[in-house]
Prior knowledge:
Largest sheet: none
Number of strands: 0
Structural class: mainly alpha
Shape: elongated
Strand content: under 5%
Helix content: over 70%
Amino acid sequence: MEPGQLALLIPIIGVMIPIVAIWAKHQQKMAEIKVDATADATAEKAAQYATQIAKLEDRVQVLERIVTDRGYDVATQIEALRDTVEVEQRDAGVPLNIGSKEQA
Length: 104
C-alpha cells in the first residue's frame, strides 16, 4: 500500500467509525421501541384472555350449579329443547292465505 493511499484511508476511517456508531445506536433504539410495542400488545392480549377466562369460569360455575344444586334432569331438559325447536320449525309464523284476497 502506498503512503498516499494510507493517508487517504485514515481520514475516511476516522469519519466512518462515528457514522457506524451513530447508526448502531439508532438501530438499538429502534429495537427497544419495537420490543416495548410488542410487550404492550402482549400485555393487552393477556388481559383480554384473562377476562375471557374469568367469564368462561363463571359460565361453568353456573352450569355446574344448575346440574348439581337443583337436581335437574339434563336429558329431560334437552328433550324439552328439541320439542321446542320442532314446534318453531313447523309453525314459523302467521299463515298466509294467498288464495283468498281481501274484499274492498
